[in-house]
Specification:
Order of helices and strands: HHHHHHHHEHEEHHEEH
Low-confidence stretches: 326-338, 376-381
Number of domains: 3
Structural class: alpha+beta
Shape: rod-shaped
Helix content: over 70%
Largest sheet: 5 strands, mixed
Distance between the termini: 76 Å
Strand content: 5-15%
Oligomer: single chain
Length: about 375
């Protein structure tokens, strides 16, 4: 837009410089060719088209050297030559300008053009060149500012992403601390209050036996024992509920993945879509994932590990797959069947689920697949 505005001003000044000339076919042709050359410079796309446009501008200057009628519109071509001046091509532009100045001097001596037209053409040629150079510098500054703006926006997006990661990490740490505190409270209640109530129940039973020959006293101790047993059951239920709340599947799996990640190790991708699984299923899946990642680190040269834990309408599912390759992989995995894989299978089958482990179908790597029914998992306490 800036160059269109500049060229409009230059063209208007060129027309003013040519007002004193006789309007003939050569002047009209000079005007039309000047406008065409100036327009080609604006619509040229691609390196080849730009070079052709630049060559047309130089050709127009050369024609103006031999045809006086073209001289008043030469500043349009000089404007386009100046816009593409580079250090390696500056001598060509300076040579074309010097030749054009010599042509104007020759026209002045020969009287081919009026002095007014020659003076305006010379002044306009210098002004058009300076205007083009100024606009080129302005465009470079605008481009630099756009790049700076894009870099700042990119940095802002990166910082925003880091802030989100930090916020998520902070939430994770808070949740982890909360769950750890719940587990500690559950242990304290179980170890202290639970044991004291159990002791009180045994003492009440012993006193009831000692005073068996005193029906009234024995009945009182029976009531005391019943009350203590009820309190013990309530404490146990509360401890189990608190312990279950302290077991979060997503937090457990995330903790295991974080511990397994290392600079030289595989990239581990984790997706958990089952945050409220029962404690026994969460502990089972955590043990399976820990053993599966351990096998991957020890027995394969995997680059990527994908962990998916999902909750379906009737069952929970855990899938651990890697792209590990290596000659020792099959043998190592086969030996592990009697130890790690066997332990994983026993854990899943104890909850009524199914467990499979073996090479991935149609792709290199290993796949561990475990499912546990919801009803079986929820009832097994």
């Amino acid at each position: 837009m800036n160059r269109l505005f500049d060229k409009s001003i230059v063209l208007a000044c060129c027309i003013a410089a040519a007002l004193g000339l006789a309007v003939d076919a050569r002047l009209v042709a000079a005007f039309c060719l000047g406008v065409v050359v100036a327009s080609l410079a604006e619509i040229a796309q691609g390196e080849r088209a730009r070079r052709a446009s630049e060559a047309a501008s130089y050709a127009y200057i050369m024609v103006a050297v031999f045809a006086p009628s073209f001289a008043p519109f030469a500043p349009l071509a000089l404007y386009d030559i100046a816009r593409r001046v580079r250090r390696e091509h500056v001598w060509g532009a300076l040579g074309a300008g010097a030749i054009f100045v010599c042509a104007l001097v020759a026209y002045a001596h020969a009287g081919a053009l009026p002095a007014r037209a020659l003076l305006l053409t010379a002044i306009l040629s210098v002004a058009a060149t300076l205007l083009s150079l100024r606009t080129a510098q302005l465009e470079r500054e605008q481009e630099r500012m756009r790049r700076t703006r894009d870099e700042l926006q990119e940095r802002a997006l990166v910082l925003e992403a880091r802030n989100r990661d930090l916020a998520d990490r902070q939430d994770y740490e808070v949740e982890l601390a909360t769950l750890a505190e719940r587990a500690r409270i559950a242990r304290e209640i179980h170890d202290n209050v639970g044991h004291q109530l159990t002791r009180a129940s045994l003492q009440a039973e012993a006193l009831r036996v000692v005073h068996a020959d005193e029906p009234g006293v024995a009945a009182d101790f029976t009531d005391v024992k019943r009350t203590v047993d009820e309190a013990l059951q309530l404490v146990r239920a509360s401890v189990h509920a608190l312990n279950d709340n302290a077991t979060d599947l997503s937090v457990q799996l995330e903790r295991i993945v974080e511990d397994a990640r290392s600079d030289g190790g595989p990239q581990i991708e984790l997706e958990v879509l089952a945050e409220h699984a029962p404690a026994n299923i969460a502990n089972c899946f955590a043990a399976i994932l820990r053993e599966a990642l351990s096998n991957t680190m020890r027995h394969t040269r995997a680059q990527n590990v994908i962990v998916r834990c999902m909750e379906h309408p009737s069952f929970y599912q855990l899938v651990v797959s890697d792209d590990g390759t290596g000659a020792a992989k099959t043998n190592s995995r086969g030996i592990a069947e009697g130890m790690g894989l066997g332990s994983m299978r026993e854990r899943v089958e104890a909850l009524g689920g199914t467990f499979t482990a073996g090479p991935r179908a149609g792709a290199p790597g290993w796949r561990v697949f475990a499912t546990v029914p919801k009803q079986q998992g929820d009832d097994a306490r």
